[in-house]
């Protein structure tokens, strides 16, 4: 299948629910879960230091430095499976990426709060390409300002092997989140390919 544009105002969100085929997607989940240098990073939340409710890792070209939530990341060098996936995602998006942020949601209690990927390092209209592996989790989107962008929040169930692309004005006008779930959920691995400008 190919990327399909979702009909949303002030956003360009595209989804390919079956970007990676089943045997490949399973093998990649197993390999990355085992080989990635996962860390649980502290972040500052309302002036308090807490651990992020998920494991993370950052890989990329040398110099693709990235800061968010009070952390500065130096990327680890690309590994063969990450480099291969990067090339597949670049071909699908027609864009190049110099880094990837990986998130491992160990179970339904791991999550990501409402945010936009709008750090200055990404430029004003970044292309963010997100590959999901493992357990299906809800990915929620809502307008930042519902007065200016009138639309209901929406929920996408991101399946293993899916590719979600957010580009154009999406990060300016919309927020996204992966909420906790009370449903039993196994591990989910998400990779967001990004391009850091001016490295
Ligand atoms: O896990 C996801 O699907 C979203 C990850 C995300 O929003 C991010 O890494 O900025
Ligand atoms: Fe994000």
Automatic annotation (TrEMBL):
Sorted alphabetically, which Gene3D superfamilies does this protein's record hold? Answer: Alpha-ketoglutarate-dependent dioxygenase AlkB-like
**Gene Ontology process terms (BP):** DNA alkylation repair
Q: What would be an example GO MF term here?
A: metal ion binding
* Natural source organism: Hymenobacter cellulosilyticus
Return the protein name.
Alpha-ketoglutarate-dependent dioxygenase AlkB
InterPro entries xrefs? AlkB-like, AlkB-like_sf, ALKBH3, Oxoglu/Fe-dep_dioxygenase_dom
Report the cofactors: Fe(2+)
Question: Which stretches make up the Fe2OG dioxygenase domain?
Answer: 96-197
Q: Report if keyword Membrane is assigned.
A: no
| UniProt keyword annotations, A-Z | Dioxygenase, DNA damage, DNA repair, Iron, Magnesium, Metal-binding, Oxidoreductase
Q: Which Pfam families match?
A: 2OG-FeII_Oxy_2 (PF13532)
Which domain of life, per UniProt?
Bacteria
